[in-house]
Here is the input.
Amino acid sequence: MSKSLSGKTALITGSTSGIGLAYAKVLAGEGANVVINGFGDADAIEKERLGLEALSGAKAQYSGHDLTKPDEIEAMMAQAAEAFGGVDILINNAGTQHVAPVEDFPVDKWNLIIALNLTSAFHTTRLAVPYMKSKKWGRIIQTASAHSLAASPFKSAYVTAKHGLAGFTKTVALEVATFGITANCISPGYVWTPLVENQIPDTMKARGLTREQVINDVLLAGQPTKEFVTVDQVAAMALFLCSDAAASITGANMSIDGGWTAQ
Here is the structure.
């Protein structure tokens, strides 16, 4: 049986673990070439890359480029173009977080979060769109966040970046609407990933809480289901957005947050 994304190439930033790796696996499972990007243990990344090729029956490439640097983003996109002709599916998923009151928020952390969570998506998108236009088909997906729709205290940079990402996506969707290209956000609530786990100590310090209190009274407090979203649930939405059935969904912000932003 033919796979729905055979012949397509997907590039997913921040995809050596967590949500990004789940995206890569679900798209590879439908036959796409994939380019994964991020940092981590070289042997573990190579194991994942080989696993993606086994899933897809196609090619998987690893990019270790630093997405806070525009010249490295250009190099990553050029590498993908050389290997595959261009990127058909772009998923901007790379991100980082820091938790602190605004008056104490380190300027270098603000700059890092804006660069990685927001500005990198501008650069990958501007470089991917010409190829998508030439093919009259493309899918641009941002991992936004419930924080693209609502705020939480002590996360000024992250909330700013995610709100910006949602607005950027709407603008791009309008610009490419007649070229067979869609641009959408997926906005998860709290997903159990390294990003969430790693912010627990900072939140404990900022709020004077125990680890268990942070999980139950902060992270899951706003999710009516009282359950973490899973990476597989987020990846399934991305796969749907890549399908022909989703061709008329563009400029949308798809909440997967256990009811958080319904409140």
About this structure: The domain at 9-189+230-262 is CATH 3.40.50.720 (Rossmann fold).
